[in-house]
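Take a look at the protein record below with the fold in mind.
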Amino acid sequence: MLDFKEELNKFKPILEVDRIEEALQSNEIKDVLDLLTHITKTIESKPKSKE
């Protein structure tokens, strides 16, 4: 039978997973910046109504 506590103590995360997480997080920031840039351009290109 498996001793789960013993197996968990043996566990070591793969280094590649850390690199993947970092890449994904940096992509998320880029995505947010792209969205903000798009929103800003959209707002600026709309004709202003006369009040």
About this structure: The two ends are 77 Å apart (CA to CA).
